[in-house]
Design brief:
about 25% strand, 8-stranded mixed sheet, globular, alpha/beta, Rossmann fold
Length: about 230
């Protein structure tokens, strides 16, 4: 195992558990913050069809998700490696597997909710769209509030940004979180469209990323080529 990380600011297009260049190859506690949005549950949809990578997936009436691909053993394996490599961790867990994540004894949780998105799953109330963020480790800086709000730039707010990734994260919100916490370094084992990596780069924080699906390189390259930050909130 290497004594230190010699190459920063690079996306490896491979499995984050690759024994040669993935998480297992990194030294213990060599990165300050692990910040990621795992891919499980990104295809949850209640409409008649959902499009993923240009393909239309048919609705399965017996399931609440489309090809959720949740793998508890794999998730536990990469989490343990991330926990070994990082001093602190933030994971966007979603709502469907919270029991699993709470069994891993997080330090705490904060909530991010959308001001302009309302889910109508309940017969007696309308719910704001919210996402749980769980964290592990000690944080010197606080986010001030345990509930953060943001606006999803849909419609005219989207400014016609087109992504391949089905669930890109808003750069404005990520900048707010990372900028407040001021990590010394950052790693994202599921880079997706590259939001967390781009935010770290803007803030001058050394970063590493992994993305197993190389098709998303187009999104990541698009983010890093863009100079007008305010045009890329999503």
């Amino acid at each position: 195992m290497n004594e230190k990380i010699t190459e920063w600011n690079k996306v490896h297009y491979c499995d984050c558990m690759d024994p040669d260049i993935g998480l297992p190859s990194l030294p213990d506690k060599s990165i300050d913050l692990g910040y990621t949005d795992p891919p499980w549950g990104v295809n949850y949809h209640k409409h008649k069809k959902v499009i993923k990578h240009g393909k239309i997936l048919k609705k399965d009436p017996n399931k609440m998700t489309y090809n959720d691909e949740w793998d508890e053993e794999f998730t536990l394996n990469w989490f343990n490696e991330l926990n070994r490599v990082c001093k602190r961790i933030i994971i966007i867990t979603g709502q469907w597997h919270l029991r699993f994540w709470f069994n891993l004894e997080p330090t705490g949780m904060f909530i991010v909710y959308s001001k302009n998105s309302v889910a109508r799953d309940s017969k007696i109330a309308s719910w704001n769209h919210y996402t749980p963020y769980l964290y592990w480790g000690k944080f010197k800086k606080k986010l001030i509030r345990n509930v953060l709000e943001y606006v999803i730039p849909w419609g005219f707010l989207s400014k016609n940004v087109k992504w391949i990734h089905p669930s890109p994260k808003g750069l404005k919100l990520v900048l707010q979180i990372i900028g407040k916490l001021e990590p010394e370094s950052l790693i994202d084992p599921f880079a997706g469209s590259g939001s967390f990596l781009k935010a770290a780069d803007i803030l001058g924080i050394p970063w590493l990323g992994y993305e197993i699906n190389e098709v998303y390189k187009q999104d990541i390259d698009k983010r890093f080529a863009q100079k007008q930050i305010d045009l890329w909130n999503y």
